[in-house]
Design brief:
Blueprint: E1 4-8, H1 19-28, E2 33-36, H2 45-55, E3 58-69, E4 71-78, H3 85-107, H4 114-121, H5 127-136, H6 143-151, E5 164-165, H7 166-175, E6 179-182, H8 192-204, E7 209-214, H9 219-232, E8 235-239, H10 267-282
Parallel strand pairs: 1-2, 2-3, 3-5, 6-7, 7-8
Antiparallel strand pairs: 3-4, 4-6
Helix pairs in contact: 1-2, 5-6
Bound molecules: adenosine monophosphate, zinc ion (ZN) and fe (iii) ion (FE) (2 copies).
């Protein structure tokens, strides 16, 4: 029986299950806890937390932020409270980019209306939503196909989004009360030395953990990441990156082919780290005193 899943997207960003539906599914699967880690937004938290109470699933309010470090590196933030304005602005930048994508499609004669998309999909719209529309218009066979042919880098409807530098993102997450964790480290195609450089850079800005278990990562990869986390004194986390029908090959809790297994024991140190962080953030006492 799987225990927890600490990397989950909902309709608050580009997943296809609502926060409540996601928590209900987690409970059906027997999961004890899940973290809601939508892209750049905390808007799914309230619904997920309330569903967590109803279904007896521990819900960790989280976020996933795409940052700039040469390639795009994703940072997770767990137990995040209030987004500082720096992070909140990302959603507006996303909006601007989305408007341009919709205008490009409309100029090609496609019936795409961004205002209507927001009514349907909510605030944090991403390329996967455009992918769904292209599928519905019969221009692509799947969201993935839409990325390959229209939305991926270099394709007709690709417009880059303004992103935040990795350092300020890690710091911004911590200042927002979130425990910053490096997401899916193998996605960046780095060798051991390069990955260590990335971790060092993040740690300079307050990184507290590494996502060691992830959909598709095999035993050797997981062992390597866990030993890195131990060596650096970082917390271990793990999750599926579930997106519902937008990534149908990923299952909540179990990953791509049942390989994912995240122990419940990883939740407590994460919670304790968040509590420490929150205490430090709200503390009125000077950090050093003469007494
Ligand atoms: P955006 O942040 O709007 O530029 O869109 C990027 C998001 O699209 C990523 O965070 C992924 O979750 C998603 N994505 C990237 N490639 C694919 C794909 N081939 N199929 C489905 N979703 C994808
Ligand atoms: Zn996503
Ligand atoms: Fe990611
Ligand atoms: Fe993700």
């Amino acid at each position: 029986m799987r225990e927890i899943d600490l990397h989950v997207h909902t309709t608050a960003s580009d997943g296809t299950c609502t926060p409540r539906e996601t928590v209900r599914r987690a409970s059906e699967l027997g999961l004890r806890g899940i973290a809601i880690t939508d892209h750049d937004t905390v808007s799914g938290h309230a619904e997920a937390l309330s569903a967590g109470m109803d279904y007896g699933v521990e819900v960790v309010p989280g976020i996933e932020v795409s940052t700039r470090y040469g390639v795009s590196v994703h940072i997770l933030g767990y137990y995040i409270e209030n987004l500082i304005p720096l992070l909140d602005n990302l959603v507006n930048d996303r909006d601007r980019r989305n408007e341009q994508v919709a205008a490009l499609m409309a100029a090609d004669g496609l019936p795409v209306d961004y205002a209507r998309m927001k009514e349907r999909f909510g605030k944090a719209i991403g390329r996967p939503h455009f992918g769904r529309i292209l599928v519905e218009l019969g221009l692509a066979e799947s969201v993935n196909d839409a990325f390959n042919r229209y939305l991926g880098k270099g394709q007709r409807y690709f417009i880059p989004r303004r992103t935040i530098e990795i350092g300020p993102a890690v710091e911004g997450i911590a200042l927002s009360g979130g425990v910053p964790v490096l997401a899916h480290p193998f996605q960046y195609k780095k060798n051991d030395g390069e990955l260590r450089e990335l971790i060092d850079c993040c740690m300079d800005h307050g990184l507290r953990g590494i996502e060691c278990r992830y959909s598709g990562y095999d035993h050797d990869q997981v062992r390597y990441l866990e030993s890195l986390a131990e060596e650096y004194g970082l917390l271990k986390t793990g999750g599926s990156d579930f997106h519902g029908d937008n990534k149908p090959y990923i299952s909540l809790g179990t990953g791509m082919s049942g390989e994912l297994d995240v122990p419940c024991a990883w939740l407590e140190p994460l919670r304790e780290e968040a509590e420490k962080l929150h205490r430090r953030l709200v503390s009125q006492e000077p950090s050093s005193s003469a007494e």
